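Q: Two folds, back to back.
A: First:
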Amino acid sequence: MKRIMDVAKTVNLVLFFAIQLLVYAAGAYWAWSQSDSLIIQLTLLLVVVGTLTITWAAFGHPGARRYLTGWRRALLELPWFGSAFVFLLLLGRPDWANGFAFWYGLNVTLRITWRQI
């Protein structure tokens, strides 16, 4: 049973990483879809993905100088991961947004339960 739980916890962490990548992908997809001008697309892409990257690197990554825990972590994660939900809604993809919200909700519930946060 312990082996199964270890595998489940590892799968949950892999899911967490995949969800993080989906945040970047949703932001990039939204930025790219905002204009037909390559310069505007690239600018928005750099701003959106750059902001997400800097925020996560500064506060969300385990190696960050100011790694957040507890309620401060929730204050980081809710808007950071919520941005993907909003980007997907703005793209007219409520089905994708709801799917993302489901998987993130399941993942965060398991991370809290298994003390992976």
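A: Second:
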Amino acid sequence: MSRPRKNPDYNAEMIMNEFLKDMAEYYEKSPQASLRDVAAEFDVTLLKVRKILITAGVYSTDISNEIQELEEQGRTIEEIMDTTGLSRASVHSYLPYKKGIYNAREVSLDAERSRKYRQRKLAVLRLAENRRAKDLGTFGASYLYPIFLRFGVKSR
């Protein structure tokens, strides 16, 4: 038997679909709206907006269509890079999301745990540095960081 979920209301697929729908509706309702306008409205990056709108099927350009066709033909990212002359990041930015939107408004429990872990780890490192500096005192600091005496001779 598995353990109960800590946040039973969290549904990543539902959150992604709602975000896609909201952004696509905003983009379609405002024909004069640029990708920059959409990015500003939803407080996300321009590349993320393009990728989300491509995923939703409401935005396409010649290059995005070409990249998607090449991928559907089974070409690898490296082959697409060679064919189009684009970087890896650019190729990925023209492909739709497959797993989900990263850095969405509501984060998953695993992402939240990872963030807390990184914060605790950083706090422990800072605490250790502060203790080490206090314990060393003046002599210890000169041991860690060699100083030059008046005549250019090292202290160690």
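Q: And?
A: The mean pLDDT is 78.
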